[in-house]
Amino acid sequence: MRALFGSHLPLLFRSMAATRTPSASKSTSTSPSKAPSKSKRKATAQRAEPSPERHVVDGEVVAAAPKRKTAKKGAKKGAAKAAKGAKTKAAKAPKRAPLSARTADPMELYQLAVQSPELDAAFLARVFKKLTGREARHLREDFCGTGYLMAAWLARHKENTAEGFDIDPEPVSWGLTHNFDKIVDAAERCSFHLKDVREPSHKKPDIRTSPNFSWMILTERQTMLEYFRTVHADLVDGGVFVLDIYGGPEAMEEMEEVRKVSPGFTYVWDQKRYDPATGAYHCRIHFRFKDGTELRNVFDYHWRLWTLPEVLDILREAGFQRVESWWEGTDADGVSGNGVFRQNDKGENCPAWVTYIVAQK
Ligand SMILES: C[S@@+](CC[C@H](N)C(=O)[O-])C[C@H]1O[C@@H](n2cnc3c(N)ncnc32)[C@H](O)[C@@H]1O
Fold first, then answer.
1. Rounded to whole angstroms, how far apart are CA atoms 234 and 23?
2. What mean pLDDT is reported for the chain?
3. Which ligand 1 atom sits closest to the C-alpha of 210?
4. 169-178 vs 106-114: helix crossing angle, rounded to 10
5. Phi, psi angles (nearest 5°) of residue 94
6. What is the pLDDT of residues 19-70, one digit of tens each?
7. Which of 66, 199, 340, 354 is most buried (CB neighbours < 10 A)?
8. Which of 21, 123, 167 has most ligand 1 atoms within 8 Å of CB, for mutation?
9. Looking at per-residue confidence, does 97 or 225 come out higher?
């Protein structure tokens, strides 16, 4: 796969970034969320450990020949389709060994536990169509890490293209190795830039997103305003910027939330510290395994817990003409989220929520 990279690597936020995944259960606090949307753990972080596979050549990250582990892939949704025709005994995927801190790949666990790229990509496409009446084709993902969302975007339509910005070559390299092997023409339709998110796009995006709360590493209002201004200038006319945000009273509690994840590990979202005077927010992710081992502090986030109205105001100030929040509906049980998001001016006063912010140029 050919990849396009910038040589410029500002380190401004390198030490601040972190990954995380609050669970936005619409209902009670500590119960792990089950619905993919509401329970979706979103994350924005920097790995505390180096990724195991890295292919960096002269400042460029290049894709390695696919060397995916069959067992790993076999455990993933959609793998059966990819392996179509491989119904012989010989082609049967080997049974996966139980996960353990000694052998697990933290980046893979992260993707399994906190990301729902197909749902996010579908949401982006739906919102853009609703606001503009046309299909979005070119996506830019800020803080793209492994580019998991970009890969889902490419998979949605053969004319879809994407570019991602991240200052850290490690997750980018991991993503090139693990996330794009089903997209045969990914090299033609996708590029990564090892650059700060405030750098302009190679091609003006129809839709631009900063998922999994990554933008919350920008902790000063002026810095956030500058970032949003660069996003506004970068979009096509009428283009759309989508963020997600985590809130509700439980978001401010110093607590751990624990959730079991297939194929057999426990994800722990650790809200370590929240300072009400500044909004400073320290969260971590740990993974626990059935053999009693644990990976602690795999991702470590130092964010500001921004409030929704603050962010909407800054987006308006940055020049966006239409700024909305989209909230998830409630399931038949009257408690859980139903995965369907709609524009809602007032929001819903849940103990913990994840909602989308949609801003149109
Ligand atoms: C955990 S990742 C987010 C991955 C992915 N977008 C997701 O949905 O989970 C956050 C990323 O932001 C990157 N990052 C932090 N500050 C940045 C900046 N100023 N410009 C570009 N990338 C940045 C980090 O290198 C890290 O890979």
1. 31
2. 80
3. 6
4. 80
5. -65, 150
6. 334 544 443 222 223 222 333 333 334 343 333 333 232 233 433 323 222 2
7. 354
8. 167
9. 225
Whether the CB of 21 sits within 6 Å of ligand 1: no
Task: Determine whether the shortest distance from the Cβ of 172 to ligand 1 is under 6 A.
Answer: no
DSSP state of 32: P
Residue 10 C-alpha to ligand 1 middle, in angstroms?
Answer: 13
Out of 88-97, 187-196, 203-212, 258-267, which region has the weakest mean confidence (pLDDT)? 88-97
Q: What is the pLDDT of residues 310-361, one digit of tens each?
A: 999 999 999 999 999 999 999 999 888 899 999 999 999 999 999 999 999 9
Average of per-residue pLDDT across 199-218: 98
The alpha carbons of the chain give a radius of gyration, in whole angstroms, of 19
Ligand 1, atom 24, lies closest to the CA of 46
Q: Which ligand 1 atom is at minimum distance from the Cα of 171?
A: 27
Place of tokens 């130092």: 302
The pair of structure tokens assigned to 202 is 């190679």
- Determine the Cα–Cα distance for residues 117 and 103; give it in Å rounded to an integer: 25
Residues 6+ apart with CB under 8 A from 215: 44, 142, 143, 224, 227, 243
Q: Hey, CA dihedral for 216, 217, 221, 225, is it positive or negative?
A: negative
Q: How far apart are CA 42 and CA 24, in angstroms?
A: 9
pLDDT at 275 over 60: yes
Q: Which fold has domain 1-64+98-361?
A: Rossmann fold (3.40.50)
